[in-house]
Structures are given as C-alpha cells and as structure tokens.
Amino acid sequence: MEAFGQFVPLLLIFVIMYFLLIRPQQKKMKDHQSMVGALRRGDQIVTQGGLIGKVSKVKDDNEVEVELAEGIKVRVVKSTIAQVVSKTEPAAES
C-alpha cells in the first residue's frame, strides 16, 4: 500500500500535464487540419512566414498555389498556412 502511495503524486502530475498541455495541443492540431482541409480558391490566407495572399488553385492534398500580387504566384505547402483571413462562399448550386 505504501508503494501505491508513492505513485499517486506521479500519476497526478501526468493527469495535470495531459489536461493542460497534451489535450489542448491535439485540439489545436485538429482545428488546423480542418482549416487547411477546407481551403478553396479565393480564400485569403496568411502563411507562417507572414506572406498574405489569395489561394488561386488547390493543387493536391499537400499544396496550394497562392497569388501574392497580380501575376505573382507561389506554391505553398498547406501545413505552413497559419490562418485564413477571409473565406469565399461556396458556389451556389443552380
């Protein structure tokens, strides 16, 4: 019984670490993945490097083409997109 009493503080520390650090980080990653997965043409984005541009083409699962200025397009890895500034509305079906 004494040995179990010595592990209680260790278990308590692990539980606190899980709820304060691990769980919020997993939620943040999940939110980022859903944001990146919902990217579409016309969305205005900010990259982790601070570049602001408009998505001109979603190339594949891992890459988008971003127009930084008129006629200047760069390929960007989706995971480096920090935030979506403004979303475009999905096209209405007629």
UniProtKB/TrEMBL annotation:
<keyword id="KW-0812">Transmembrane</keyword>
<keyword id="KW-0813">Transport</keyword>
<keyword id="KW-0653">Protein transport</keyword>
<keyword id="KW-1133">Transmembrane helix</keyword>
<comment type="similarity">
    <text>Belongs to the YajC family.</text>
</comment>
<protein>
    <recommendedName>
        <fullName>Sec translocon accessory complex subunit YajC</fullName>
    </recommendedName>
</protein>
<keyword id="KW-1003">Cell membrane</keyword>
<keyword id="KW-0472">Membrane</keyword>
<dbReference type="GO" id="GO:0015031">
    <property type="term" value="P:protein transport"/>
</dbReference>
<feature type="transmembrane region" description="Helical">
    <location>
        <begin position="6"/>
        <end position="22"/>
    </location>
</feature>
<keyword id="KW-0811">Translocation</keyword>
<dbReference type="GO" id="GO:0005886">
    <property type="term" value="C:plasma membrane"/>
</dbReference>
<dbReference type="Pfam" id="PF02699">
    <property type="entry name" value="YajC"/>
</dbReference>
<comment type="subunit">
    <text>Part of the SecDF-YidC-YajC translocase complex. The SecDF-YidC-YajC translocase forms a supercomplex with SecYEG, called the holo-translocon (HTL).</text>
</comment>
<comment type="function">
    <text>The SecYEG-SecDF-YajC-YidC holo-translocon (HTL) protein secretase/insertase is a supercomplex required for protein secretion, insertion of proteins into membranes, and assembly of membrane protein complexes. While the SecYEG complex is essential for assembly of a number of proteins and complexes, the SecDF-YajC-YidC subcomplex facilitates these functions.</text>
</comment>
<dbReference type="InterPro" id="IPR003849">
    <property type="entry name" value="Preprotein_translocase_YajC"/>
</dbReference>
